[in-house]
Amino acid sequence: MTLIIVLIAVAVVLVAVTGLYLVTNRRAAPPAPTSAGPEEKGGAPDRELPEGSGAGAGAAAPVSGEVAPTERDGPALVSGPAVVVEEEGPPAPVGGEEGPAVVEEAPPRLRDRLGRARSLLGGYLTSVRSRDRIDESTWEELEEGLILADVGAVVTAELLDDLRATARRDGIDSPSALVEALKAELKRRLAGDPELHMADQGTTVWLFVGVNGVGKTTTIGKLGLDQVRAGHKVVMAAGDTFRAAAADQLEMWSERVGATVVRGGEGADPGAVVFDAVQHAAARDADLVLADTAGRLHTKTNLMEELKKVRRVAERPPGVVTEVLLVIDATTGQNGLIQARQFTSAVGVTGVVLTKLDGTAKGGIVVAIRSELGIPIKRVGLGEGPDDLVAFDPDEFVEALVGDGDGDGAG
Ligand code: GDP
Q1: This model's pTM is above 0.85
Q2: Which of 16, 154, 289, 292 is deepest in the core (most CB within 10 A)?
């Protein structure tokens, strides 16, 4: 009997211990996944009007659901409600489950990407180096190479005059020493402040100007990535309200790099969009606004007037415009110089971003722009990918363009 009582007692204790164990374990276990996915995915991303909104003041802000339609009836330059598309958190890592938002690539090697330019000018200079003395035909060969590389007739003439003076002064008598002197002269002419400056106080605004198709939007995307990586909180302003695709493109980039985009309806007042972006940035403690602008309006005069207005609006406190970056497509050669003159006189360009250097033999346009306009080249575009924008380093550029004597080119 005693034995039976003891056995029952042991059984009761065992049942109690097992029950306790199961309860404890269930509490510690994570919730089972549901087919609906994580809770956070249930809600639409926040979209709201910036506080103190100029363009959108008084209009109801879409707070959820799809991005507000961009097609707006009514006349051009009528402001519509600005829409903010937030991109929360840092850019997704490479090779993540959701696909690579930002590809961490090794920076493109300037030398490899300047293939066509390199094979042209590099080829001429290799030929000069292989001569056994300097004579008039040496100078003619240099001239031809520089002009074909799009340095331009005026700058080429100045450059060669300076080079002749240097050769006389320094007693240069070998063709290879002459090429070295030319490289030094090119580096000297290309030197300039490559920094992109932030304001000491207020919200920094960098305006991007340039004709259609040169690569403004793409450059904003690439630079946005660069600045997010540098620790800045970035807002992109879709100021090219004349092309709905431009705002879509910017929105895509903002998602890719972890920035926020503020956009207006098609035909909205670009100044108002930029104003809203600055207000939004200030309200969210974002320190940098990258503002896209239209590259084409009905007439050129209007475009320049519009850009002046955008700049004035962007300067309204707390906005501080520290950079007006003229984006130039290197493949357009000397046309780029004409554009540069127009934009510079209208909006006071602080620096040039030269895109598409990867696809052109006309790399000499860099020298023409720097020499003729005195505007520093700040960045160069070497491809369409997020990492294909590099700071402009004259030494590296000239070495990559002219080579070190192998003159092999890349294609
Ligand atoms: P926007 O009209 O000035 O905003 O020009 P987009 O940014 O839309 O660019 C026009 C085209 O040029 C797009 O197909 C870009 O991918 C391309 N692009 C921009 N920068 C570069 C570059 O550095 N190299 C190459 N190869 N293509 C570029």
Answers
A1: no
A2: 292
